[in-house]
TrEMBL record:
Protein name: Shikimate dehydrogenase (NADP(+))
Organism annotation: Rhodanobacter hydrolyticus
Residues covered by the Quinate/shikimate 5-dehydrogenase/glutamyl-tRNA reductase domain: 115-195
Protein family according to the UniProt entry: Belongs to the shikimate dehydrogenase family.
Pfam families documented for this protein: SDH_C (PF18317), Shikimate_DH (PF01488), Shikimate_dh_N (PF08501)
Keyword Electron transport part of the UniProt annotation: no
Gene behind the chain: aroE
E.C. code: 1.1.1.25
Annotated GO MF terms: shikimate 3-dehydrogenase (NADP+) activity
Source species, domain of life: Bacteria
Catalysed reactions listed for this entry: shikimate + NADP(+) = 3-dehydroshikimate + NADPH + H(+)
Amino acids binding shikimate: 16-18, 63, 88, 104, 220, 249
Domain SDH C-terminal: 242-272
Quaternary organization: Homodimer.
Record: active site: 67
Length: 275
């Protein structure tokens, strides 16, 4: 029989690590699959997804800028996709309906708790950004036991909308970006802005970094260099980039498609070794 077909949709997408990650997982189980990249503009995305699944596709990953559209076009949404309003995974049910999932939040929490052995319970966390990724990780961090979550976004209305959607005013607060210097320090700081990817750079006061703070940039590689350097200069105990989250969100998607959870460490180590 034909190998099952998977793809990642994005724009741009050529440099995506997802094909390698999924092929690496598949090898662990002796599974043969096709996994390709599909570059679709926002105007083409919905048609491209439908064509992929009509042609026999089993599952798709979705990345920038299509995560919102992926959630909207699906027939059903998981709880995580509903809460985030975005999806990074699409699966096809036997009757052809599409289900949207969001594994980004679970990916971050797994990277922190399993790979980095962090106990998230009781932390006072600062979340920078309120875009799609921030929405995905906010609930997961709270579910994992973060005590308070302070959300700060350049556009404050979006942070307020996220806090309202979460609906836990005792644990979730929003503050203004211009006020960052007055907020004191946090023991967990998560950068979910795309400033590093876009090359804009963030101006963050060192006073945010608590003694022995844990800092995490969802971006990885060159896009995370500035944030990681800032965190270390501020005295952070650890400052990680998002490569582990990337591998873990892929593993969660793999488990949805194949019913088995891969060993992420060899794939993570081989990507890390390449810098
Ligand atoms: P979105 O476009 O949905 O959101 C971007 C966010 O960044 C918004 O909050 C935006 O603020 C903020 N932002 C952009 N530029 C600046 C700036 N110069 N200063 C301050 N804030 C800024 O993107 P996503 O949420 O999808 O992605 C965010 C990041 O997370 C990206 O770097 C992405 O690569 C990474 N990511 C990593 C994953 C992984 O597996 N490691 C998974 C998913 C995402 P505003 O609302 O004001 O525009």
């Amino acid at each position: 029989s034909q190998p099952s077909q998977f793809a990642v949709f994005g724009h741009p997408i050529a440099h995506s690590l997802s094909p390698r990650i999924h092929q690496g997982f598949a090898q662990q189980f002796g599974i043969t699959l096709e996994y390709r990249t599909i570059d679709a503009t926002p105007g083409d995305f919905a048609d491209a997804v439908r064509a992929f699944f009509i042609a026999g596709g089993t599952g798709a990953n979705v990345t920038l800028p299509h995560k919102g559209a992926a959630s909207s076009l699906a027939d059903e949404r998981s709880e995580a996709a509903t809460r985030a309003g975005t999806a990074n995974v699409l699966t096809r049910l036997p009757d052809g309906r599409l289900v949207a999932h969001n594994t980004d939040g679970a990916g971050l929490v797994r990277d922190l708790t399993e790979r980095h052995r962090v106990d998230l319970r009781g932390h006072d966390a600062l979340l920078l950004g309120a875009g799609g990724a921030a929405r995905a990780v906010a609930w997961s961090l709270l579910d994992a036991g973060v005590q308070t979550l302070t959300i700060v976004n350049r556009t404050p209305e979006t942070a307020d909308a996220l806090a309202d959607a979460i609906g836990e005013p005792a644990r979730v607060h929003t503050r203004y970006w211009d006020d960052l210097a007055n907020l004191g320090s946090y023991d967990l700081i998560v950068n979910a802005t795309s400033a590093g990817v876009l090359g804009g750079g963030l101006k963050l006061p060192m006073s945010l970094v608590g003694a022995r703070a844990l800092c995490y940039d969802l971006a990885y590689g060159a896009a995370a260099i500035d944030f990681v350097a800032w965190a270390k200069a501020g005295g952070a105990r650890y400052a990680w980039d998002g490569l582990g989250m990337l591998v873990e969100q892929a593993a969660e998607a793999f488990a949805l498609w194949h019913g088995r959870h891969p060993d992420t460490e060899p794939v993570y180590q081989s990507l890390r070794a390449e810098g």
